[in-house]
Design a protein that fits this description.
The chain is an alpha/beta fold. It has 2 domains: 132 residues, Alpha-Beta Complex (Aspartate Aminotransferase, domain 1), CATH 3.90.1150; 213 residues, Aspartate Aminotransferase, domain 2. The chain has 12 helices and 13 strands. Strand 3, helix 5 and strand 4 form a beta-alpha-beta unit. It starts with 34 loop residues before the first strand and ends with a helix.
């Protein structure tokens, strides 16, 4: 049998993902109950309005394709209303089965498979997907002791003019750090001079005020894509709802590549109700801030360093010099994402670092007791 005619770059490809990872190779202590601080979904449940919309949903409506694209009238107005201050037009908003699905579409259908840069550590799977498409990834790491955002290195690298795309998760995963909008604007402006696309992944964006979103820059530049998710803060992880704002020029190029009928009717119904529930979003941010304050306090008293992070984002990175913090947490029955899982985007990231998602409210007291 002849060899299949597949792209050469996929023959030895291995996805860089922390899904299914085993605590950096260490085993959780079986003698204590598990506290899951690894999985990045929302532990705060769903919006009460989404629950009402789900209970009222008529399942018979899923039996046929809609005559028009239902999310045009069902979900798009809710998204545009939420970000009306950005001035973005209807034809600049697109939907998919989660933000990763939209990033994948940009990478495989639209962006030139040249060089992607990004500030490491960051979410591994987007750079990994870019490599699968035939490109290469070059991280610009943060360094101790302050772990400052490497703005000068970013601008210098962009000025070389050979980058197809810069990928930036904001808030950052795994740090939970938020890059200020004025700094982001400078990056996008510099990238535009060299034809470099900037993809800003705001999967954790619902934990911070909407005024911080790069969506407010979309109307000013030709090279900007902003990805958003309903999975992390809004509680719809299993429904796979993502949306994307594109600059006018990019939207015109992307429109023929778009895929209709995404997300599903039921998912769009829940997402719309959630988008319109401002009280739920405010309570979410308030609850996360209080929980993070308690967790940060007990970790610092126990001698852990907390890397730069936003007080309302549900994840953080903790560090202890020359200590395997992943093994330490595992011995206490606390599951985290090992720092080594982010090695593709920061070669120096080992298991003296870990990403910690805030524990569920029911586990918060026990978490603090174990750490303390």
């Amino acid at each position: 049998m002849s060899n299949l005619k597949v792209r050469e770059n996929v023959l030895f490809y291995k996805r860089d993902t922390y899904l299914g990872s085993e605590q950096g190779g260490v085993k959780l202590n079986p003698d204590v109950s598990l506290i899951d601080c690894a999985v990045g979904d929302s532990q705060w449940g769903i919006s009460p309005k989404a629950r009402e919309a789900g209970n009222a949903f008529l399942v018979e409506n899923v039996s046929a394709y809609p005559h028009d694209l239902f999310y045009e009238e069902l979900l798009k107005p809710a998204v545009l209303a939420r970000f009306h201050a950005s001035g973005v037009c209807r034809n600049q908003v697109f939907f998919g089965h989660g933000s990763f699905n939209l990033a994948e579409r940009l990478i495989h259908k639209m962006i030139e498979p040249g060089v992607m840069i990004g500030v490491g550590p960051q979410f591994n799977e987007i750079p990994s997907e870019f490599v699968a498409a035939g490109g290469s990834y070059q991280p610009l790491p943060v360094y101790p002791p302050m772990f400052d955002f490497p703005m000068r290195a970013v601008l210098t690298r962009l000025a070389r003019g050979d980058c197809s795309v810069m990928y930036l998760d904001n808030p950052n995963n795994p740090l939970g750090r938020l890059l200020e909008l004025e700094n982001l604007e400078l990056i996008v402006k510099t990238a535009e001079e060299f034809g470099t696309i900037v993809v800003v992944d705001e999967a954790y964006g619902d934990f911070v005020p909407d005024a911080n979103s790069a969506i407010h820059l979309v109307g000013q530049f030709s090279n900007l894509a902003v990805l958003r998710s309903c999975s992390k803060g809004l509680g719809l992880a299993a429904e796979r709802v993502g949306y994307m704002f594109l600059s006018e020029k990019m939207a015109g190029l992307y429109q023929p590549l778009d895929v209709p009928f995404e997300p599903s009717l039921y998912a769009a119904t829940l997402a719309r109700a959630t988008m319109e529930d401002g009280e739920f979003q405010a309570q979410l941010r308030d609850g996360v801030t209080k929980s993070k304050r308690a967790v940060t306090s007990v970790l610092m008293r126990a001698g852990f360093q907390i890397l730069p992070t936003h007080p309302a984002v549900s994840i953080m990175t903790i560090f202890k010099h020359k200590v395997n913090v992943v093994a330490m947490m595992a011995d206490w029955g606390i599951m985290v994402e090992a720092g080594s899982c982010f090695g593709k985007t920061h070669p120096g990231w080992d298991d003296s670092y870990c990403r910690l998602r805030l524990p569920r409210d029911r586990d918060l007291e026990e978490f603090c007791r174990r750490i303390g």
